[in-house]
Structures are given as structure tokens and as C-alpha cells.
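Hello everyone,

My group is preparing for a crystallization screen and wants a predicted model to guide construct design. The compound we'll soak is adenosine-5'-triphosphate. Before spending weeks at the bench, it would help to have a computed complex in hand. I've included the protein sequence and the ligand's SMILES below. Output in C-alpha cell form would be ideal because that's what our pipeline reads.
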Amino acid sequence: MSEELIPAIHLESISRSFPGNDQPALHKLSLKIEAGEFVAIIGPSGSGKSTLMNVLGLLDHPSSGKYWLFGQESTATAESSRNRIRAHSIGFIFQASHILGDDSVLSNAAMGLRTQSVSMNDRTQAALDAIDRLGLAHRVGATAKTLSGGERQRLAIARAVATGPQIILADEPTGNLDSVNSAKVVSHLRMLKSTGSTIVVITHDPQVAAAADRQIEILDGQIVYDSGGSARNSHSLVSPLQTEPLHDRSMRSLLRIAADDAGDAISSLAIRGLRSLLLVLAFAIGVGGLVASVALSETTSNQVSSAIKGAALDEVKVNLGDAEGQLFDQREQLDLGMDRISDLPHVRGVAFLGEISPTEAKITRLSPTETEPDRAISLATSSSSYFDVVGIDTTPLRASVLLDGGKSGSIAIVSKEAAEELGIDTSGVGGPPAGISLWINGQLVQVVGYFSPDDRTPELQVSVIVSPEVVAGIDQMRLSLVVRTEEGFPSTVSKAVPFAFSPASPGSVSVQTVADLQDLRVNVANDLGTFIAVLSIVLILLAAISAATAMYLTVQSRSSEIALRRAIGASRSLIFRLFLLEGLMVGSIGGLLGGAIGTLFTLVISASSGWTPVLPPTLTGIGLSVGAVTGVVSSIYPAWLASRKDPANAIRS
Ligand SMILES: Nc1ncnc2c1ncn2[C@@H]1O[C@H](COP(=O)(O)OP(=O)(O)OP(=O)(O)O)[C@@H](O)[C@H]1O
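Reply:
Good plan to model first. Here are the C-alpha cells for the complex, ready for your pipeline.
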């Protein structure tokens, strides 16, 4: 690198005024400081020392005048170059040491190096060297908040010198220290001077002022005394400033930046563990609900479709309403209506089904007084034609004929699941053994066969179908007809059925093709899915609002950290990325957890309802992406606010 003989600092007629202040904080101040000088700036409170320091450190812009830093005119320099100069060429030591209390001593010392994007190994080495030089090696792994005041200030110096800056700016470095610790700081500053650093110290401390080679006094924003420059020493030659990015934009370097960002975000989330956990849970609940709604609506749709898809093409259901004891009084009329329906074109068969209200049916195995099985068994009555119409075989074959009366008397055909529930052995291939009977509402009913309901008749899964005389005395019965049509004709037939069954009042007969029913149930499933989805979106919005609020509060409480990062050269975009990444991580973890919760919820609901769960392979992706997007969106505003914080103001507070 080329080396020239130029002042380290050259101010010409610098003024700085603040809105609302009649007196400028700096007034036409001119000053030259040679490289390698150790200068103390003294003056009463309010005289403009900190303002001068902020201008020198490129934390603040003067209102007028010119400033050359190592020969480079820096008043008009772009923000990104100013960040780089701060990161590479200036070391700051602030009065309030601005240590990140929850981070380790090592990570505090390495902070500036992280901003420089130095590799992890070099970073650790340089930070350890600086810690060692400042006599803190024994506390290297400690959490910074456990350090004493003097140790903190030495750590602040270690952080400032670890990056190897050309100039050190220190604002009251001994302000909070006793004389012993002040003396240590002074000796470290002298040691730095001896290695060629240019040092500018603002101080009220006579000990520090005396240790400097040159004293400058400021009053009302102007220099009122200057002890004069010292001779250049052997280290006083300066190198050009670092204004261009040092790290290349290679894949490796980008990966390092990404790893640094992720590391910062993780440690920041870990430090605020409980807050992070609550946020993750908020996202998990919202996303979990959404994932469950997707999976459940798929599951229920599948359930509905597979249950009735076989019947959709050739079945019409006719609801005759509640028949209160009418079945037998009006059996003739019922048979007549059914005859007329079976005469309709495209009709293959028709049968009735009388379903008895569960409160009216007591079914037991051995005695009329024993307790009913745990699982509810439904009771229905029909004729043999029902089995033909819905296409269910019985064991033994044609057992259903016995339903049509005659000598056999009171008989029952039992679904396999109901038989198992009642403790009847269904393993025999020839049907129930002779003499097996049930007690139904106090009557002894002989079991003559089994049947296995299929998808068309899910309502008969656990049921007993009896001959009509068994239920003769029962009032509460829902009566319906099942009409089997030629394939593709349910809709045509359904229009004619009411007129055929009840020519006098066709309006009293309500007809549904299974296809209608399917639509209806799919709609119900969809409605349910939509309801859960809307609810989940509300939950996700709430999660996003809580995340945004928590993040906003965090930004406020981390003002000092943000100020420090900005002061030591972190760009606005780095600060923005840091907060955005925190939102992304919280949202993604919440989203993944929500995906798992939603899946588990669907499995539990499906298992308890006897459904086959349908878990689309995209569920995890949905959970993750909804969580990630919501996390990012909710952190945009707080991240933006953080990135806009003015380092000069923030560092004062
Ligand atoms: N951001 C600001 N907005 C308004 N006025 C400001 C701002 N910063 C500094 N000032 C004013 O400029 C003047 C110089 O302040 P400065 O902090 O530089 O003094 P100082 O010499 O460092 O004081 P001290 O020794 O008490 O820290 C003061 O009157 C102060 O109120």
C-alpha cells in the first residue's frame, strides 16, 4: 500500500447546529491531528466535546465545513463508505462501555471483527489477543455482565483495538472508574499510542489529560486552548482509508456472512428464551390450526366420497319422514307406493328401511335386563328386498328372505361388527350357530344371519336388522326408501318418485339422489374446513401482531446494542437482516411445530372418528412456509425501525 505524509485528522471550519438550539454545538472549528498523536480534548459540560467526537467518528454530519480523515474528504462520503471506515479504521471506546451484557467476553471483543466479516478463526484469534493484551484472559468465557466496571471498560478497549484501527476515539474512558482502574486504562492507551495508533480522548480526568501528548480545550464549540502538536513519531506514516468492501462476494464469503447473521439471530433468540418460546408457540397454534383444517377437510372429503361414491350413480333415497307406528297401519299403502316406484322406467328395485331411534331400542345378548354393550348398536327393520337393492350378501346366503315373515317369526340379521359387540362368534362359514338369539326390547329374537355393510350403507356398520313384527310396538321410527336405478338414472328417477309414491301429495316426499347427498356432505366438509381455516388465519394474524409487538419492544430495549453495532460499522442492512432473520426463525420453527401439531390433531380426530386420515405431502411445507412468511412479515416494520436508528443519538442514550 502507498504511504503518504498527511494528517490523520484535518477539520476546517466545522460547525454543527441542532434544531431548537440557538447556539451551535460546534462553531467554525479547525483542527489538525497528526497520525500517531495522543490528544486529550477537555472542556466544561456542554462545550461540544461529544459532538466533536461524533463528527470525528463519522457518526454525525457537520452542518458546514470540511473534514479530511487520513487525507480523504469524508463529509460527502456515502453512508456505505462511512460504515466501512468506521468498521476498519476507527476504534470507539464509549463512556458507558456499551458492552452486550448477555454475551460472552470473547463475543463482545470479537464484535467489530464480525462487522468486518473476518473469518471465524481469525476473529477468535484477534479477539483473544486483544483480551490478553487488556489483561482479561482469565475472564474470556464469562458473561460480560458479570465483569466489574473496570473490567468492562478494558473489554470495551479490547473490542476497539481487536480490529486493528488506525485511530482510537475514546469518550470519557475513565468516567465511571476509580483511580486504580483509571490508571490501568491510561497505561493501555499509552501502550496503544506506542504501537502507532492515533488516539483522541475526551476527558474530564486530569490523570488522562496529563497522559496525553497534547491537550485541546473547547468552550462553546470552539478551541480556546491547544498545547500544540507533538512531533511525528516513527509510526506516524499513514495508509489510505479502507472504503471499499474488503471481503469478496465469493460463495464462501457470502456463506460466512449468512452464518454470522444466523449465529447472531440464534444467540439473540436464545438470550430472550422465554419471549422466543412464547412467540414460537403463538405461531405454532396459528399454523397448527391451518394445517389441521387443510388435512381435516381432505380427510372428511375423502371419507364422504369413498362412502357414497359407489352409490352415486344408481341410487335414490326417499325420506318418508318419521313414521309413528304407521309402518304396520299403512303397510298396504307403503307396498302400493313401492310397487308404483318399481314400475317406473329405469328402476331396478325398491325397498324400505325403518330406522328406530336409539332411545327406543334396547339390544342385549343373554337377558333382557343386562347392560347394553358400550358401543351403540342401531336397530332397523326391513324386508329381504333391501339386501337385494343395496347389494349386500348375508351369511348364510338368502338369510334375508326370513325377514319377509312366515313361519320363522321374530328374526334378526346382525352386522358383523354388531355381532362382535354382542359377543356372538362370527367365525363359522355357515352363519350363526343354531339357537343364537338376542333380547330386543324384552323380546327374544333369533339371529339367523350376518351381513357386512359396505360403503353404500355406512349407517348400518354396527346394526341389527329385524323382521317388522319385532318393532311393531315402537313409535319412533324414521322411514325411508332406497331405489336402485339403472346406472346414470338417479336424477331422472328422483323426479318421478314423489308422484309415483304419493300421487295425491307428491310434495310430502323428499327425494335425494346420492349424488346430491354427496355434494351436500362435501359442501358441509368444505364449510367446516373454511371455518377452521378462517379461524386459523385469525390466529395467525394474532400471532403476527404479537410477534410484531414483541419485536418492536425488543428493538426499543436493544437501542444501545443497535447503536453500538451501527457505531462500529454495521450497515443498516445488517441490522435490518438481523431482526428479519429473528422473525424468520421464530416463524419457521413455529410453522414446523404447527405442522406437527396440525398433523397430530388430524390423526387423533381421524382415529377417534374411524376415518382414514388423508395427510397431503405438502402439509409440512405449508406449515413451514406460512410460519416463515408470517414471521418475516411481522418483523419487517420493527427491523426497518431498528435499521433507521441514528447511531450518534442512540449511543448517547
Ligand atoms: N442531538 C442533539 N440535539 C440537540 N442538541 C444537542 C444534540 N447533541 C448535542 N446537543 C447540544 O450541543 C451542545 C454540546 O453538547 P455535547 O454533548 O457535545 O457537549 P459535551 O461537551 O460533550 O458535554 P458533556 O461533557 O456534558 O458530555 C449541548 O448544548 C447539547 O445540548
